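Design job #97: recover the sequence.
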């Protein structure tokens, strides 16, 4: 079968022919319908050799959807022909955290060598993929896999981040979204669907700000120093109730800290790197700083239901598996509107 693999440190991913996998006991094989392209993939492929721990070759794709076409021994609860989305942050399934469906925070996954598809295990950018356990499959029902596959991360991650901040996003509140790309433009829609907050979008160019307005942002400003003044004007000088940073590099982290209010939330969702001073005199009183990761299994059901209601959609650009390397080129160049999706 064809697969898109990262094969050499520092090199671009390649489309290659590899053996079609067979499911073992307890496993399920999917005929892949769609796979999403993510900045996390680019981050992974940018790591130097001494920091790269994901194994080579690696079939990419941690956002996956498909149709079950083969079932391993002992599998129950799913049937051949079921259309499903893949829940990506796999855990042990046995601990207290996993029992709550929060496998994204499983404390034992690393020590047991359990890794997500596309981030250590073979991912969805192939004609077929193996899912380790049927509990990691969520029914798609009538949802189009191509237009909704990205919800397994680009929807689930902002949904989880925003859900934790809901108590602060009351009528009259202001929420800031920094970065309106693959995750951020979905985050704007989630905020509009689930809160009455005024949504302010920040990004680096007018095209991205236009996307933010198209999907529901009340205000859209360039993410420069003037953005702090704009947010302060909207909040009578007090700052935002919540700032969701979907970039996570030093300039955006510093920007977010400058505009969060007393008792506000600054939420670092992006996979960039940076640091912030923390202390009594370094941040507004009781302003929290959080770095959530992905989301729970139950939250994947919820974000898919939100899409099913029509409240959320993903702007997508579709590529064939043969053209998948060019999707990463466009991602790196910042030329994608929303999310790239690979269709084998």
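Job complete. Output follows.
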């Amino acid at each position: 079968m064809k697969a898109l693999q990262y094969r050499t440190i520092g090199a671009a991913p390649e489309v290659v022919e590899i053996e079609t996998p067979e499911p073992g006991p307890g496993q399920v094989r999917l005929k892949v319908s769609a796979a999403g392209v993510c900045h996390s993939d680019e981050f992974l492929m940018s790591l130097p050799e001494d920091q790269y721990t994901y194994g080579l070759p690696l079939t990419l794709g941690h956002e996956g959807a498909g149709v079950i076409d083969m079932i391993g021994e002992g599998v129950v609860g799913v049937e051949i022909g079921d259309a499903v989305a893949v829940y990506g942050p796999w855990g042990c399934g046995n601990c207290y955290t996993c029992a709550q469906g929060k496998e994204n925070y499983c404390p034992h996954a690393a020590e047991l060598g359990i890794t997500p598809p596309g981030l250590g295990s073979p991912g969805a950018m192939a004609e077929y993929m193996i899912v380790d356990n049927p509990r990691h499959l969520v029914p798609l029902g009538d949802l189009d896999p191509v237009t909704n596959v990205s919800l397994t991360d680009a929807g689930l991650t902002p949904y989880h981040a925003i859900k934790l901040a809901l108590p602060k996003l009351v009528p009259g509140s202001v929420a800031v979204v920094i970065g309106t790309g693959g995750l951020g433009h979905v985050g704007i829609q989630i905020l509009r669907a689930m809160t009455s907050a005024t949504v302010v979008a920040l990004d680096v160019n007018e095209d991205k700000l236009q996307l933010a307005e198209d999907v529901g942002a009340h205000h859209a400003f360039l993410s420069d120093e003037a953005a702090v003044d704009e947010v302060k004007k909207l909040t009578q000088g007090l700052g935002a109730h919540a700032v969701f940073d979907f970039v996570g590099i030093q300039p955006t982290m510093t920007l977010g800290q400058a505009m969060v209010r007393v008792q506000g939330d600054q939420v670092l969702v992006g996979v960039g790197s940076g640091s912030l001073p923390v202390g009594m005199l370094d941040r507004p009183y009781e302003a929290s700083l959080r770095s959530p990761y992905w989301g729970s299994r139950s939250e994947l059901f919820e974000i898919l239901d939100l899409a099913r209601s029509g409240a959320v959609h993903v702007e997508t650009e579709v590529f064939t598996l043969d053209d998948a390397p060019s999707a990463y080129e466009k991602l790196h160049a910042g030329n994608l509107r929303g999310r790239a999706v690979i269709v084998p």
